[in-house]
Design goal:
By secondary structure, the protein is mainly β. It has 7 helices and 66 strands. The strands form 16 sheets. It has a 6-stranded mixed β-sheet with strand order 4-3-31-30-29-28, with no helix packed on it. A 5-stranded antiparallel β-sheet has the order 19-20-21-22-26, with no helix packed on it. It has a 4-stranded antiparallel β-sheet with strand order 2-46-45-44, with no helix packed on it.
Length: 1087
């Protein structure tokens, strides 16, 4: 509910900073409001009020960069799930563009062109509104705050109160509609937050509001698309100056005496979801037709066969214009060139917006006549008039008929005597519509479903199996007093003829240009490597390729690609570059981290002005930090040589002191947790002089997308390992969606240090440093780090030692606890896979949230992707045969690390007992599952096999447990046959267990004690839990039954439990697949 999220919604800021309270009196309101406006222009990106630090930096986002001499939109975040709204926000008669995004924010593109030639430029990714609040003295304050509705923002701009300016509405993933009233004017709009739940309308999720007058009463009506596939229509029971939308009510007891319209359901596209409606007068008959985007990438078209007063919508196509975006489709119509014909824009689940140009049919064909001046014709005129005036330009009849006939495709030999005879060759039916004979014969379409809006009727829904009907527009108009409408029906469908002609223009309407193309996981580094006085740029990526760019600009960078052989992917993945002079020859060498946790050295064999890097060491100094190493070089001890700092996947920064020299480095480990850094994962260190002392401070990127600030307070001459203080884990609320990779550098030569940030989605963000705000100093309340240091004194390290970071388990910060499972929902995600659901979770698309694979009785292996920015349980089915699975019924998937390489592979059990295996040759973040049948040759787990793995005999290799229909579990041990693992049957009834029917073994640490628990589900729903005893037998694990965790839960029949951290709170929750095909979700609240 909103109450829980209110603080987050109104205060979090991606590049946020100080919010400036302005108190208003009645006498000085206008003056102070004007001053606030001026100040908000000066401080283009105000920073968060929540900071309590004495220094606050003013970061201004920069969006455009020059790439090979061309200006490109380079520094921007994701535009996934773009909900577009064109509107004139500054009263200059051209249309600006407001875009709602998957991250819950709004981006504004200002049109600096004109009504016929748009030129849209990104002004902000964090659109702001005004909040009214009271201070401690109950004085009214007005605060500028970023619009953040949580996720999946869907904006609409409409003059809801008929005061001559546009008000703002924003739908959200929670199903709410936020309302922001415009209390400025059409030249200078000022949007004030009024309510997060407009008219108390609260829906199931992903609300997409659209306001338009549907029935000619001059009051704006509301159409809303929803997550569950419904499209609802709310006719306005109020007036143009005072809207009223009524939820379903008892006619004898309305909530408001003005209520006269019940909500209507236009359609329900279920089992598809994410209905996204838009309105357009497609047939130019002065009433609104409706186009609905769907989760399968296609569009529904509802033709309004009524009139502007009595609309009558019929489903004319479920694949409009045969458009398919390949996934989520979010349509918007807008006339870009002022010719009277609307272009089509489609937002998608990625940042790409597809743009279809509408080439009006007559002009598009007549332009073939070179002697015809089309500028003298009006594209909005009737076809008859246009052809007549064109004929006059071409010497009139009959001379004009020959060139016009050729342009319009008239067959040779056809006899033409007048221009009206050309029309049949000009207007052709749309074959994607049901009413077109071609469409009816070539495709199997559903009957056209009429949805006629009554003037005084309620709950008028047409049954899905109703016979096809078509309405013929009559002479009568709505009276407003009758309870029924009598409309004449035509016996034959009349095809829809229009002059619209959509042509694909681009799949990247916004012109986004990523320096790493389609790569993910960008890690930036910038330095002047060719000694021309300008900082160059190099970027790491998930594939391991390095992307290097020389800066050839003058005042601002101009990026030109630099190619070298060493940049191409080799065995490395997740490259993370840094440069420094490691051999004292005056030029910069290149180091790259990788997924394996090691460092590669690429020595510069060229010159300082023209570097040429050659791979010289694939494991620099034998360093190994576990996985996902990100190196940075910095002389922390001031001895003139470069020390080494390496972030890793566990969120630590490991410090290696250079105990050699400039010419010959020797890196010796000094701390496994430098500065006390412990991020939620994937630490990326960056040094930055935060304050005015002589010490460099440390900023650490993290898996959660935030930045942590750690400042140095050590006295001169003391150990560099002492005196560090953690100032903030969410420094200035700066963040990217996931995996923040910061680097500080002066890119524009203004002597201020700017901030570059890469993220997991492959975007690069640039924040220019516009100075510092200083506030009062605050007392130090946190202890300064003095512990967790390895070999604090240099002479304690053996001179000739080569030290490798211990990547084994570290002391746990979280103590063990008993899990407490609380029921959240018995229908998680609204999913129903038919019968016998067996779920498995893993992030399969690299977007940092869990995706879902479900096996079922029918032998399907369904893949559901968790939508970007979506809430729990919002899933989009991608396929019913994931990885081409055809292994038979009762598919039972399990993601587990079979080969011990640190990422999870996929095992699938089947009804016949066979087990299928896909080896993950990618990574935990970006899996690449490759089929490998060899290890399971000869393995049969019994009917309805369900696999799980665990090192049962403590030999360092994963063994296999397979549950089956009899309620037993078979035990297989892994043996090596050459270099290939195989499994040997050890016993047919592990632990002599018999759970009745349908044993489902799972291995998970549900009590956080760093030991695996063995949890076994069964067909009758009972779940039993075994824990390893402290005293282990030789080469074996002993188990004891642990009661209490599941005894009091109401568990579903056919239970197939899986344990994952669904809410990212650090403990394992439980999702259970059921016999009837649904999922039951229990949240773990034991911590």
């Amino acid at each position: 509910m909103f109450r829980k999220n209110e603080d987050r919604v109104v205060t979090s800021g991606l590049y946020s900073g100080l919010m400036f309270p302005i108190r208003f009196s009645k006498q000085s309101m206008f003056i102070q409001f004007f001053l606030m406006m001026v100040f908000s222009v000066i401080v283009l990106n105000p920073l968060s009020a929540q900071t309590d630090l004495p220094l606050t930096y003013l970061w201004k986002p920069k969006y455009y960069a020059s790439v090979e001499g061309q200006e490109r939109l380079t520094y921007a975040r994701s535009f996934a799930r773009s909900q577009m709204k064109f509107a004139d926000l500054d009263g200059d008669d051209d249309m600006d563009l407001l875009i709602g995004k998957g991250d819950g924010r709004l981006a504004l593109f200002r049109n600096i062109g004109n009504p016929k030639e748009s030129n849209l430029r990104l002004e902000t990714e964090d659109f702001e509104v005004i909040h009214e609040e009271k201070d401690a003295n109950q004085q009214l304050m007005y605060l500028n705050k970023i619009v953040d509705v949580g996720k999946n923002a869907a904006p609409d701009l409409v003059d809801i109160d008929d005061d001559g300016d546009l008000d703002l509405f924003v739908g959200s993933s929670d199903g709410q509609i936020f309302f922001f009233e415009n209390r400025g004017n059409k030249l200078l709009p000022k949007f004030f937050r009024v309510t997060p739940i407009y008219m108390n309308l609260n829906f199931v999720g992903n609300s997409v509001p659209r306001f338009v007058d549907l029935n000619g009463d001059l009051a704006k009506d509301l159409i809303v698309g929803l997550k569950d596939g419904r499209v609802m229509i709310y006719f306005n029971s109020g007036v143009s100056t005072n809207a009223l939308f009524c939820k379903e009510y008892d006619p004898l007891n309305p909530p408001d005496p003005r209520c006269k319209f019940q909500p209507l359901m236009l359609t329900n596209i279920s089992p598809l979801g994410d209905a996204s409606p838009t309105l357009v007068d497609w047939d130019r008959d002065k009433d609104m037709d409706i186009v609905i985007g769907k989760s399968n990438g296609k569009l529904d078209f509802f033709w309004n066969k009524g009139n502007p007063i009595v609309p009558d919508w019929h489903l004319e196509s479920d694949h409009f214009q045969f458009i398919d975006s390949g996934g989520l489709s979010i349509p918007t119509f807008h006339d870009m060139n002022g010719d009277g014909y609307s272009e089509l824009f489609i937002g998608t689940s990625t940042s790409g917006i597809i743009y279809y140009e509408n080439r009006e049919l007559i002009f598009d064909r007549l332009k073939a006549i070179k002697t015809l001046d089309l500028s003298l014709l009006n594209s909005t005129d009737s076809p008859e008039r246009i052809l007549r005036e064109a004929c006059d330009q071409l010497r009139g009849l009959p001379e004009c008929l020959i060139p016009m006939g050729n342009a319009l495709g008239v067959p040779p030999g056809a006899k033409l005597t007048e221009t009206n005879q050309l029309i049949p060759y000009l207007l052709r039916p749309d074959s994607s519509l049901n009413s077109t004979p071609l469409a009816q014969t070539e495709t199997e379409q559903k009957p056209a479903t009429p949805v006629q809006a009554p003037v005084m009727q309620a709950n008028t829904n047409t049954a899905e199996d109703a016979p096809p009907e078509t309405a013929e527009e009559g002479e009568g108009e709505a009276t407003g007093s009758s309870d029924e409408e009598t409309v004449e029906k035509s016996e034959e469908p009349e095809p829809l003829l229009t002059r619209n002609q959509l042509w694909l223009n681009t799949r990247n309407f916004l012109g986004l240009h990523r320096l790493t193309a389609t790569e993910r996981h960008v890690v930036p580094f910038s330095i002047d490597w060719n000694k021309d006085g300008k900082n160059d740029l190099i970027l790491g990526s998930a594939s391991g390729r390095l992307y290097a760019f020389e800066n050839r600009g003058e005042k601002e960078p101009d990026w030109w690609p630099l190619e070298q052989k060493v940049f191409a992917p080799n065995q490395r993945r997740y490259s993370a570059p840094t440069l420094g002079d490691l051999d004292g020859d005056g030029d910069l060498d290149l180091i790259s981290g990788n997924r394996q946790g090691k460092l590669e050295l690429m020595e510069n064999r060229g010159t300082s002005e023209k570097p040429e890097w050659i791979l010289s060491d694939v494991n620099l100094a034998q360093i190994d930090v576990g996985s996902y190493s990100v190196p940075r070089l910095h002389d922390v001890d001031g001895d003139g040589d470069m020390d080494l700092f390496v972030g890793n996947s566990r969120g630590l920064v490991i410090f290696y002191e250079n105990q050699g020299s400039k010419e010959r480095t020797r890196f010796v480990i000094r701390s496994t947790r430098f500065a006390g850094v412990k991020t939620p994962g994937h630490a990326v260190p960056a040094f930055f002089k935060w304050n005015e002392d002589e010490q460099m401070d440390l900023v650490a990127g993290s898996r959660d997308g935030f930045l942590g600030l750690h400042t140095s307070h050590s006295a001169k001459g003391t150990s560099v390992l002492k005196g560090w203080k953690s100032q903030s884990q969410k420094w200035q609320d700066l963040r990217v969606p996931a995996f923040s990779s910061p680097y500080f550098t002066d890119l524009n030569g203004d002597k201020n240090i700017d901030l570059l940030m890469g993220d997991e989605e492959g975007h690069l963000v640039l924040l220019e440093n516009n100075g510092v705000l200083k506030t009062e100093e605050i007392p130090e309340t946190e202890k300064i780090l003095t512990q967790n240091i390895i070999d604090e004194e240099p002479d304690a390290v053996e001179e000739s030692a080569t030290v490798i970071v211990d990547t084994g388990p570290v002391e746990r910060e979280d103590s063990a606890f008993d899990p407490v499972f609380e029921l959240v929902t018995t229908n998680y995600g609204g999913l129903d896979v038919g019968k016998r659901a067996v779920p498995a979770f893993l992030d399969l698309d690299g977007d940092s949230d869990l995706d879902l694979v479900i096996g079922n009785h029918a032998g399907e292996l369904r893949l559901y992707l968790h939508e970007p920015g979506a809430e729990d349980g919002e899933w989009l089915m991608e396929t019913k045969s994931y990885l081409g699975y055809q292994g038979g019924r009762n598919a039972s998937p399990a993601f587990t690390d079979l080969d011990g390489d640190g990422d999870r592979d996929l095992l699938v059990g089947t009804e016949r007992g066979k087990i299928f295996y896909w080896e993950n040759q990618g990574s935990m973040e970006l899996p690449d599952l490759i089929p490998n049948p060899t290890p399971f040759v000869g393995v049969t787990g019994g009917r309805n096999s369900v696999p799980s793995v665990l090192d049962l005999n403590q030999d360092g290799k994963m063994d296999l447990l397979v549950g089956n229909f009899l309620g037993h579990i078979r035990e297989y041990h892994q043996i090596l046959n050459g270099d290939t693992p195989h499994f040997k049957l050890e016993r047919r009834q592990f632990l002599n267990l018999d759970v009745g029917l349908g044993a489902v073994p799972r291995v998970a640490d549900i009590n956080n004690d760093s030991q695996p628990d063995l949890i076994i589900g069964s067909d009758r729903g009972r779940i039993v839990n075994f824990q390893p005893q402290q005293e282990k037998a030789v080469n074996a694990m002993n188990w004891k039954l642990k009661d209490g965790y599941f005894d009091k839960l109401e568990l579903p029949v056919g239970g197939s439990p899986v344990f994952e951290d669904m809410d990212f709170d650090g403990d394992l929750d439980m999702v259970i697949g059921t016999e009837k095909g649904t999922l039951v979700y229990f949240r773990n609240t034991g911590r």
